[in-house]
Amino acid sequence: MSTRTPLSIAMHPADNVAIVANDGGLPAGSVLPSGLVLRDKVPQAHKVALADIPEGGAVRRYNVVIGYALKAIAAGSWVHERLLQMPEARSLQGLPIATVKPPVLEPLEGHTFEGYRNADGSVGTRNILAITTTVQCVAGVLDFAVRRIKAELLPRYPNVDDVVGLEHSYGCGVAIDAVGAEIPQRTLRNISRNPNFGGEVMVVSLGCEKLQPERLLPPGSFPIVDEREPELDVVCLQDEAHVGFMSMIGSIMERAQVHLERLNRRRRETVPASALVVGVQCGGSDAFSGVTANPAVGFCTDLLVRAGATVMFSEVTEVRDGIDQLTARASSPEVAQAMIDEMAWYDAYLDKGRVDRSANTTPGNKKGGLSNIVEKAMGSIIKSGTAPITGVLSPGQKLTDRGIHSGLVYAATPASDFICGTLQLAAGMNLHVFTTGRGTPYGLAQVPVIKVATRSDLARRWHDLMDVNAGRIADGEATIEELGWELFRLMLDVASGKKTWAEQWKLHNALVLFNPAPVT
Fold first, then answer.
1. In sequence order, what are the beta bridge partners of 124?
2. pLDDT higher than threshold 50 for residue 294
3. Beta-carbon neighbour count of residue 92 at 10 Å?
4. CA atoms of 80 and 168, how far apart (whole Å)
5. Nearest CA to 483 among 468, 494, 497, 464?
6. How far is the CA of 415 from the CAs of 257, 320, 383, in angstroms?
7. Vertex 189, ends 188 and 194: CA angle to 5°?
8. Beta-carbon count within 10 A of 101 CB
9. Would you say 432 and 450 are in contact if contact means Cβ atoms under 8 Å apart?
10. Which residues lie closer than 8 Å to 68 by C-beta, 6 or more apart?
11. Tell me: the pLDDT tens digits for 195-213?
């Protein structure tokens, strides 16, 4: 985008601020197309006052009050977080309940991808051997074994995409029966059941941990296959049969080979787009997130819902300040109340920790033009599109265990990237979309992650990390609708086996569990 043509973007006619769209921002004295002269240098994605705002006056973006002026702000001035008083959080009482009745979306038919059918009716986008762990103590041993498996065994099984260890920091030294302890336990259990793992059950245990294999994966955890439930295949490192480290590694590799052989017999087949279970998330957000990438994802969300797919949006900390918008879009009073309950839990959590919601936004968010969590929430919610919200998941719950098989779902998670990703994996996600403005090398080993840049500058600099450049919307080179369709088609290609940049570079982290239970 040329910096010689000043460009600003307002989100609503009632807004009294707009963001500067030019790479590198604009210097003082720049003249916007409206004739407004900038009084200050304004960085890219930061706000400029479109009119005089008196002390105490409301600052509006998205036609929402994102703050109140701490002093008079003249038109053309840079509006940043130090000039704003954040509004109080919206009360959870008296919210609009299922008041928005959007028109019924026309079904989107005829779209398919090549996926792996599972015995429980789910479909994988990848064919992966996942090795579950019961405790953090075995992580080093399993990591060594997985590297050996990939180097020595995996090449023999060309139809298997990868081998991953489900490593985490849980399992012992915890109050395993405390209130809240069910969250990390069901999270680990449900991740083991993710569609991309083909129903194979392999566990590495230490032996003395609190989270014993039978507790993590009790009978009934997996569907019946060939009139039998898969056996719990456990390699216990403290077993007396293991004499030395390499004996442990040998046992893991021997059992892995059995599962690899079964997975290798699987083949992709044509399945409808309704088999997609997509998690959407944003991280390293900036003020462009709600202008380019998230609106394009929101348009794509509507396409997916029309195609019969399931889409999850999340991040309690990101959407709390837009709860009235969400409860209004609920398909029923029960769904609205479930969202309110999740927000109430978060409010109590903050109160217990003696912190408030102003801790969000991050320094990077602010550098990217987001003044506070209210402004950030407005841009985050947009990626949920316009469809009714038909279901709510608590952390660690699985969609199908709640009887949810399609539609737009609110999956309550913290906003931390890898915690949110971990919980969406547990819910049954088989494809992930991640938007970013400041940039983050985020990735998951268990599902493909499509990365969407909010700005063209980021897409150019991180050309081998970003899969989609939504900055073209701000540049005037594409519309939200065009980018939404492009993303939809890319999802079908990736679900069929096309690798994302995050997959090619194998960008991922260990599972990060949300654990509100105390340690012992």
1. 116
2. yes
3. 16
4. 39
5. 468
6. 37, 11, 14
7. 90
8. 10
9. yes
10. 56, 57, 58, 59, 84, 85, 87
11. 999 999 999 999 999 999 9
Answer yes or no: are the C-beta atoms of 462 and 484 closer than 8 Å.
Answer: no
- pLDDT of 8-44, one tens digit each? 999 999 999 999 999 999 999 999 999 999 999 999 9
Cα separation, 172 vs 175, in Å, equals 8
What average pLDDT is seen over the chain?
A: 96
Mean pLDDT of the 57-77 span: 98
- Helix axes 417-427 and 182-192, enclosed angle (nearest 10): 60
DSSP 302: H
Say if CB 71 and CB 83 are below 8 A apart.
Answer: yes
The 10 Å Cβ neighbour count of residue 346 is 17
Residue holding tokens 């079964």?
Answer: 262
Model confidence pLDDT, tens digit, residues 333-366: 999 999 999 999 999 988 888 888 988 999 999 9
Angle between helices 293-306 and 480-495 (to 10 degrees): 60
pLDDT at 2 over 70: no
Burial class (CB in 10 A: 0-12, 13-18, 19+), 339: buried
Model pLDDT, residue 372: 97
Which residues in 133-150 are b (16+ Cβ under 10 Å) and which e? bbbbbbbebbebbbebbe
CA–chain centroid gap for 462, Å, is: 20
Backbone angles phi, psi at 213, to 5 degrees: -55, -40
Q: Cβ-count burial of 106 within 10 angstroms (0-12 exposed, 13-18 middle, 19+ buried)?
A: exposed
Q: Output the CA angle 488-493-497, nearest 5 degrees.
A: 145
Inter-axis angle of helices 245-264 and 139-148, nearest 10: 60
